[in-house]
């Protein structure tokens, strides 16, 4: 009986699906029209150039016309832009939105950590980020919502994770690929416990790989030009991935956040002579001259440090503590002024979204602007400069007839506090956002911010660690240290879906166990410095989690 | 003020020499000092004239142009800048502990000029330190000789360009613990350490041969030669065999010291310095005959098994046996008072003032291959100088001013509370590390030594 009922129900369900399929558009996602007209808007066609009361016509993914008296095609969807501000879609110079980290390479039998295979050591320059990218991943949409329409995707991994690629954040059905292999991504990150394990080993290994790629290229050319008597060059995919770099067809995109890292990259570049993009800089405007001389392209991080100094209680502080505090404030302000100083030094730069939360991106840009970056400079770093650096300024970066229809449409001048992004058009596809939606209140978030020590009882035993909450203008964020389920110490996971009303607190975080992603949901009640709650993992049940807040240190 | 001087002189130099940027060099006249030259005796009431970073003249009643700063050192003592032959200060990474041989790595890549410890070392009269790779590997990385020109943000500016290349070797417990016990690979014993080094050298000989053959045949008519695989590790070992690199070898026991002497003799390597050398006194004649010397602790021992048999007389015994001996710190703290460490040899072994001072000046300079430039107060040498209020071997001595290349980097009267060059925008209080490992030879190798019972790891 039950069996028959199930079959019956399944039949009904399938019929439902079948009905949807019974149209010419198999997916049901096809849009009504690809033609749009945004009328009577304020259009910044490129940094410093503004048209008021103008109309943009878009057709088939391209900007067809801009002007005051354009004829609106009959099939156009009309968006009244009377109070709207339009900008060229932003270009992200370094993104990992929707990019998955490849599975850890298996260690061979009788593994010798002093001489690991390349993939075990995080050396996989032959990989393409596109093989690990999913545009339907939610984070792509999150970044599109901020105004980004084109991104240089960076692969995930360690020392040499692979090749970058250029994509447009258009429809999920399209391939969205603008260009493959736009650069070889490199990082100061190593795999634990194998060679190379530190910056020391990493730099030596990089030099060696580069030199060997040069030699192998020579050998291959020799073999190609004169096969008689020349031994066959052994294939080596890691070294061959360097060929476009050696031949200066693509740059190395090296992540270097801090000044000493930037200097180390410049040193390698000086020795070996590759084309260079330094990405995710969080400081280094004092090195502007060196970067210009090295002809290095610069990508600044959209991330900014937390203003921890502002939280310090100096009431009972000693003079020494006060002067130390003053230096921290100076250092903080200097971080915020970094972009402005780069601009003054005449360095063209773009921005990277890697390592920043999407809700902080525009806020951080405003902070950079209040610390010396010009609005024009900020917009150029989001549009024209990255287009030039990436060599796509013939079709992206400005609002011009014939360029790709990538637009950011805001309710106010984009860098003003009040501005909200109402629409984003990417690759001619329109995405609309509800700007009336108010921000979810986080109650007395201040009570929560800081460190908490937690203890959790699970069938696997007692585990403990730290949870850290921080609050940026009402947006709670946090992270938790948990025992690595795959062994070997602790890992830090970012908290998601944090909700707090002054009493009830809930959040989730995810861990990967044997390749499977598990979401851990936590909820409970906060009472002063105590948290009592439960954690639940699907199919595994509920367990207790209690936490105690660590008192804030005061001077 | 000191910083300002540095910035101004740096700016002037940028203007003058855009391409061949040089480090700042100063001129000054120090008058009426008791000059402890180390190599040419003690000169009472003597002047030292420094011009463009070099000691121009030593004598009485010297004069300089009015633009040159004059320092009255009446009643004070002037000695050469102190040289530490074994330090890990101002390095972002100390150990690449992942392989028994990591000759290819270079400490020059990880210098951190922002380390305020450099300023503290200057305040203790230290002007040059040998930044070494750690002792986790039988053959560790290439080390770097640094002149402590504090104030620069550029690591290259504190590299002493004239200094020859050096490399770290390590014997005994540390490499066997990290690799043998930690990872179950060779070396697991002292025999294994010797084998690792011999194998490395033998491989390097073959590597050298391959490249020699390739280079000699590649330009010949109808050559079928293809380039061999480049191996920075073996290339570095080949450079050692060619005498281009001085070995500084971490060692404790007499048997292992003599073992490496024999290995080096077998391979024709004579640029060899032993460091720590707790049992060096047992093989002093051999050290004197076959090596460039021994760099020892003044009085550390018994912190692990292989250093039980030690003595504070070690430096004195070695010195009296004609071993070029130095006293090193291997510590960010000891580096601030190496003059006290040297003075201990007068209590334990009765060395003369000159012998004791040589342990922290000319002798480490010889071991680093820089004695023609620094290590004593002689005309023509680089003006790395320290002024003390008392004789530097007195327990009451306090350094007053420290100069590198004639530029003043420390002045006790201008010493400010906060001498950091770079401040974190988010750290309210900089972390303080109380673990000894944080500043020692085994820095950064905790990963490989988990579960061991050793607490001290130099």
UniProtKB/TrEMBL annotation, chain A:
Domain of life of the native organism: Bacteria
Transmembrane segments: none
GO molecular function: hydrolase activity, acting on carbon-nitrogen (but not peptide) bonds
Region feature (Disordered): 98-123
Biased composition (Basic and acidic residues): 100-110
Record keywords: Hydrolase
Hydrolase is among the record's keywords: yes
Protein name: Amidohydrolase
Organism listed in the record: Echinicola strongylocentroti
Automatic annotation (TrEMBL), chain B:
Database matches in SUPFAM superfamilies: Composite domain of metallo-dependent hydrolases, Metallo-dependent hydrolases
Protein name: Amidohydrolase
One Pfam family hit: Amidohydro_1
Residue ranges of every copy of the Amidohydrolase-related domain listed in the record: 334-404
MF-aspect GO terms: hydrolase activity, acting on carbon-nitrogen (but not peptide) bonds
Coiled coil: none
Cited InterPro entries: Amidohydro-rel (IPR006680), Metal-dep_hydrolase_composite (IPR011059), Metal_Hydrolase (IPR032466), Metallo-dep_Hydrolase (IPR051781)
Keyword terms, alphabetized: Hydrolase, Signal
Superkingdom of the organism of origin: Bacteria
Segment forming the signal sequence: 1-21
Record flagged with keyword Nucleotidyltransferase: no
